[in-house]
């Protein structure tokens, strides 16, 4: 079991793992939320940007985008996909870019990659400092109290004469401030099969707790985790989209 191989040695498979994700719908939804709650300006920062799939959709809508990520192999792919964007190798837990943004995003639960609540706090401080007045920060979150350790998502596809099976699941022990994302990649050829397994430690918190945690610095609005329609969070679902306005 390795940690974060997916973003280093296995990064060539990252986009294959994400073929089921509707990056266009996610980007469009956040752009609509930005139109509603934001300052109508276009300087954009995507934290934990990965291979730049969301940034591509922001550039297409005339945003001036910067991507930040911890792993060079992910940023190298992002630079190829989005040659017009700037990319920065930094840890989002304590970043300083020296410029300000109107919209900061963090997709695919990546904010959980902060390694504990203290790191999450310094990440929010960095975000607050990097936002222009009236700027907003949008991200999605899973509630540690609602994680079902038995639930998983799996999909298969054929690529370069191999059958790939990708599987991911959340795991929370029921105690403490850390949860895990468990991932596996199986690559099956007719005569041999490779299996890689990753376990990513991530910060854990309930949605309501996180809402309270953010309140001193931000005006917070919570929405259902549905990128096709904007609906207020029902206070029950285990996933939510956070919109945080710099107050
Ligand atoms: C699940 S991927 C999401 C990538 C992209 N946002 C997407 O939606 O496809 C998580 C990303 O977080 C990055 N990452 C992990 N820890 C990080 C940290 N402390 N600071 C910045 N990026 C980090 C990884 O390198 C990886 O690219």
Automatic annotation (TrEMBL):
SUPFAM superfamilies per record: S-adenosyl-L-methionine-dependent methyltransferases
GO molecular function: methyltransferase activity
The keyword Transferase is assigned to this record: yes
The UniProt record lists the keyword Glycoprotein: no
InterPro entries associated with the record: Methyltransf_25 (IPR041698), SAM-dependent_MTases_sf (IPR029063)
UniProt cross-references to CDD domains, sorted A to Z: AdoMet_MTases (cd02440)
Residue ranges annotated for the Methyltransferase domain, each copy included: 45-135
GO terms under biological process: methylation
Keywords: Methyltransferase, Transferase, Ubiquinone
Protein's name in the database: Ubiquinone/menaquinone biosynthesis C-methylase UbiE
